[in-house]
Amino acid sequence: MKFKKTALVLSIFALSASCLLAEDHDRKIPNIDHAFVIMMENHYYGQIIGNTNAPFINGYAKTANLATNYFAVGHPSLTNYLEVVGGSNFGILNDDATNWHNTSCISNIELGMTADESATTTTCPIAGAGMDAAIPAVDTTNEGTPAEPVYNDPIAPAKTRGITIANQLVEAGLTWKSYQENLPPYGADGVNASDGLVSNITQSEPGMPQLYAVKHDPFAYFADVQVGENPELSLKQVVGFDRLYADLNSGHVPSLSFIVPNQCHDQHARGSSEMGTGCSVDQNAIAQGDAALSILIPAIKSSKAWKEGKNVIVVVWDENDYSSLPNQVVTIVDTNYAPIGKPSSVKYNHFSLLKTLEAGFGLPYLNHAADKNVKLMSDLFSY
Predict the structure, then answer these.
(1) How far apart are CA 331 and CA 61, in angstroms?
(2) What is the pLDDT of residue 157?
(3) Domain ranges within the chain, ordered by starting residue
(4) Which residues 6+ apart lie within 8 Å of 223 measured at CB?
């Protein structure tokens, strides 16, 4: 079976490419017991901070720690989600759904081919090792060409292992879950879009709101999660918000909670206008996302788990809105163990976030998180 063969390739690759893994950790990052990462969508820093339609977010940014110089890595959404959890785009620069359970499909990093918006092939389950895709300085893909170029920090292709922080946590005896709002009750397997009940695998219903979208569920793209030979590293760890609130109420939460509101509540709003909510209008989307966070954040902070050990909440936006504005996004860090209410002007990106979480969990640095120029977010996470 191809995926078992991949395990051997990974072990060989790990030995021959040890530069991908950091030998030491900066102990300025305390040991973290629980991290709650909430992903929001498609807004530039200045569209949120100071916006009167987001009173909760703006108040929270003042009372927690605010990164005022944090950048997404590139475009589109899926690419940034993969970079947050795996430190790489894994050769994927589009939002296409995964080619579920295709064991004969060779992943982009193994092929050395980029899946971008013009790709005619499907997005294979991510596995193995190889090279990821370059991040261009100017990106005009996916959601329209801006009036002026959007400049990213260009990043050259690099050696990449087809795993995520979930693999690392399981190997270290720790736990993870991906909490996805409006995931249907029958689970994530094969589901590309759903309104919480109807999905692409039950019937094709015109106008179905795509509230859950697999492009915002990065762990589902990985072969070992799809195969699920280890229940702790499988789609069983991808669950709905009902489980999120049940886990918070019980106090039994995983080491890493990756929390994704639906495409209305994450401020993305795409595909939601059919519901009559009006959240596809930008200011309404901002207001609805603000309201969603005003429920999620207090629920976490009132849970038993938040009060025990060293815990952190990170609210981060995936990318800007493809305008000519910089790809700078809001990132808020809230801890229960250190002084809060301080801003940081240090330049960070999604690789910095992954690197900092790995440091907090005592894990090796993975893929671009191991790059020497990627900074730990020590001023936001430390005492």
Answers:
(1) 9
(2) 86
(3) 29-87+163-381
(4) 3, 6, 107, 125, 126, 127, 162
Q: Is 15's pLDDT higher than 60?
A: no
Q: Which residue has the higher pLDDT, 27 or 113?
A: 113
Q: Per CATH, which fold does 29-87+163-381 belong to?
A: Alkaline Phosphatase, subunit A (3.40.720)
Closest among 166, 104, 92, 95 to 130, alpha carbons compared: 92
Beta bridge partners of 212: 194
**Residue 7 CB partners (closer than 8 Å, separation 6+):** none
Q: How far apart are the C-alpha atoms of 333 and 30, rounded to whole Å?
A: 14
3-class DSSP assignment, residue 327: coil
The string of DSSP letters for 54-109 reads -HHHHHHHHHSEEESSEE--SSSHHHHHHHHHHSS-TTB-S-PPB-TT-TTPPPHH
Percent of the chain with pLDDT over 90: 61
259-277: average pLDDT: 71
Report the relative pairing of strands 34-40 and 256-260 from DSSP bridges.
parallel
- Total-model pTM: 0.90
Tokens of 50: 């100071």
What is the distance between the alpha carbons of residues 42 and 44, in angstroms, rounded to a whole number? 7
N-terminal to C-terminal alpha carbon distance within the chain: 48
Pick from 136, 178, 177: nearest CA to 157:
136
pLDDT of residue 2: 45
pLDDT at 279: 65
The whole-chain average pLDDT of the chain stands at 85
Residue predicted with more confidence, 145 or 212: 212
Query: Is residue 9 scored above 50 in pLDDT?
Result: no
Cβ-proximal residues to 116 (8 Å cutoff; 6+ apart), any chain: 93, 94, 133, 141
Phi, psi torsion values for 135, nearest 5 degrees = -95, 115
